[in-house]
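Hello support,

Our group uses your service weekly, and this is the first time we've seen a run hang past the timeout. The protein is inorganic diphosphatase. I'm not sure whether the cause is the sequence or the server load. Input pasted verbatim:
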Amino acid sequence: MIPNFKAHPWHGITAGEDVPNVVNVFIEIVPSDTIKYEVDKSSGYLKVDRPQQFSNIIPALYGFIPRTYCHDEVRDLAIESGANDVTSGDLDPLDICVLSSHNIHSGGMLMEAIPIGGFKMIDKGEADDKIVAVMKGDHAFGHFRDISELPQAEVKRLMHYFLTYKNLPDEPAKCRIQEVYGSEAAKEVIMASMRDYANKFGG
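Update from on-call engineer: The timeout came from a worker crash unrelated to the input. Re-ran successfully.
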């Protein structure tokens, strides 16, 4: 008999059969959302984090890779990149934004994505990497394999969002992007976050 329960999207789903080349992604937010949602760590359901107060709307699908966690291993990669003010990872699953040409209207779903790079973001002394990926099989973005292949306008649009989405008008920046890295470095971050998860939760 099949158990009648819903798998927790963080703990109950694998990171993927071909990780880090192709990863499972749990999507929390889509570009049309004017509310920031995030998964409730206890129940696994999506919850309202906060309304978006300004015109800063996520420019791509956004979520996390299951069974990842950003702690010491992710922090060490940030330090290796030259960030000497980092004390920890952000103690959350690894964030990922997925580029797709399709209009997906709501989060709370799983998809497969191909990591092509990322941003080494430092937020108040914490390593808060943002992996950039493309939806597997997408007819417009699915052929990209490294962030260097993307139009610079696309990269800058993503960077601008992550550098400003927490800021109120006239406030100083709360975070910075230490570096923009390609697919191989993104895979290193993913594997580091999986080791952090295993160290924290086992498995």
